[in-house]
Amino acid sequence: MSTSDTVRSILVSKVYVEVPINEMDDDAGLRDDFGVDSLGFVELRAQLEDTFGIEIEDDDFNADNFSTIANIVGYVDRVKNGDAVGAPSTAQNT
Description:
Radius of gyration: 13 Å
CATH superfamily: ACP-like
Helix content: 40-55%
Number of strands: 0
Shape: globular
Largest sheet: none
Order of helices and strands: HHHH
GO molecular function: acyl carrier activity
Pathway: Lipid metabolism; fatty acid biosynthesis
Number of domains: 1
Domain Carrier: 1-80
Main location: cytoplasm
CATH class: Mainly Alpha
Distance between the termini: 35 Å
Protein name: Acyl carrier protein
CATH architecture: Orthogonal Bundle
Strand content: under 5%
């Protein structure tokens, strides 16, 4: 499953967005077009962290990264690739 498909699934199954998955536009606003409220964003953050095994830093949890599905996918992919603050640590314990 692609990152985009996973985000869409989380929005429907965990955040309870009522827009059908196949009608979700990656560039539509989560708040304005999908009706995600502040509690929904908190749940979305938790679900993204659990699902992708990442930590979303407070400074990164903003409209630039979380206003659309496309923004979220870009952010998650950057974190998974180690290009963002919340990237999983690759350091080994010695």
